[in-house]
Amino acid sequence: MKTLVENITDLYKNRIELLKTKDNPKIGWISIYTPEEIFYAAGLIPFRITGEQGIDLTDASAFLGSNFCSYVLSCLSEGLGGIYPFMEGIVFLDSCDMRKRLYEVWVHNVKPRYSFFLELPKAINQPGREYFRLQIRKLITSIESHFDYKISDVLLQKAIDLCNESRRLLKELYDMRKSDTFFISSTATINIIKACTSGLKEEFNERLKQLLLFIKKQDNNGTKKKHRVMISGSYFDNSGIIDTIEKMGAHVVCEDISNGVKYLEGEIPQDGDPVEAIADYYYEKGSCARIIDTERRFNHMMNLIKEYGIESVIYFSLKFCDTNFMDFPYFKNKLAQNGIPVLLIEGEQNMTNIENLRTRIQTFLETRMFS
Ligand code: SF4
């Protein structure tokens, strides 16, 4: 019989079949700075392109070069491979130079009927805030024109409520992970986040409510205190690495990544101008490597370490991801000053052979857990 977790993660695993059954136009997005609310308000179905099925990167590398991060190459490979035949359009964002190139190649070669490139400033200040508000207004105008649909404030407000509810429910789940007596695997949690970004939010919210109710009825799921680990860094989705950590007797209790806690943090205020509220929420997320303020990102990491009682950090950087990799020396020093050990892992998006990494992770954790 299906578990309640599987009931939710099916929304991701079966998303291609599920999305095909829906009539509303579908929009693919990649960065968590993309305002899903605008699409929901326009009656569109926004879903995150995850690059999980872009295993053969030959064609994508031919277009972009093999020194691109494998997340970008895998996403392009999905586009070139026609994985999303129902997709009406894409909205990409300049998170980094590689994603900019991805947008250009996608538009010219996958040829979506609709495309929009959102420009997000790298520094957080008042001019940047104003600029991003302008960008969001341009996006709205562009969607209204292409889909011949008026996005009213009332529709935006409804979409804000829907997405805020997902954030609140996910936050409840993450808050439970702060306790030593509750455990849900990190792989399951990442899959739950992916289900939330699969475009079927109402369904997702209902299914997550059922899971939370079930968890609350149990005082304690039998978990004992274990060494508490946080994953930080690039887009990360590798169950082999998580299994290795968990088999060592440690628990991954927080993912400081875009398909983890960064996706659900904060809420959009329900009063005031909804366009400005949406723009400001995304603009101020500010915990991603693309933001030039590394200290702000480190403070965000330290807050998570305190909140979740983290004892070790595993910092994952996709190969060729300069934005994440260049921050690492700073984080390493600052974490050492705070007594938090960190292991750097460089890897690929869809890597299955992790034997070498396994040994490094085991050695790192052994010295922390048994010394
Ligand atoms: S992993 Fe790094 S290089 Fe790749 S898309 Fe993300 S920020 Fe850009």
Topology:
Blueprint: H1 4-13, H2 15-20, E1 26-29, H3 36-41, E2 45-48, H4 58-64, H5 70-80, E3 87-93, H6 97-109, E4 114-118, H7 126-147, H8 153-176, H9 186-196, H10 201-217, E5 227-233, H11 239-247, E6 250-256, H12 261-264, H13 274-283, H14 294-307, E7 312-318, H15 322-337, E8 342-347, H16 355-369
Helix pairs in contact: 1-9, 1-10, 4-5, 5-6, 7-13, 8-10
The structure holds iron/sulfur cluster.
Quick structural gist:
With 371 residues, the chain is an alpha/beta fold. It contains 16 helices and 8 strands. Helix content is 53%, strand content 13%.
Describe the protein.
By secondary structure, this protein is of the alpha/beta class. It has one domain (1-371): Rossmann fold, CATH 3.40.50.11900. The protein is built from 16 helices and eight strands. It has helices spanning 4-13, 15-20, 36-41, 58-64, 70-80, 97-109, 126-147, 153-176, 186-196, 201-217, 239-247, 261-264, 274-283, 294-307, 322-337, 355-369; strands at residues 26-29, 45-48, 87-93, 114-118, 227-233, 250-256, 312-318, 342-347. The strands form two sheets. Strands 2-1-3-4 form a four-stranded parallel β-sheet, with helices on both faces. Strands 6-5-7-8 form a four-stranded parallel β-sheet, with helices on both faces. Helix 7 packs across helix 13 (274-283) and helix 8 (153-176) packs parallel to helix 10. The model has no long low-confidence stretch (mean pLDDT 93). The structure holds iron/sulfur cluster.
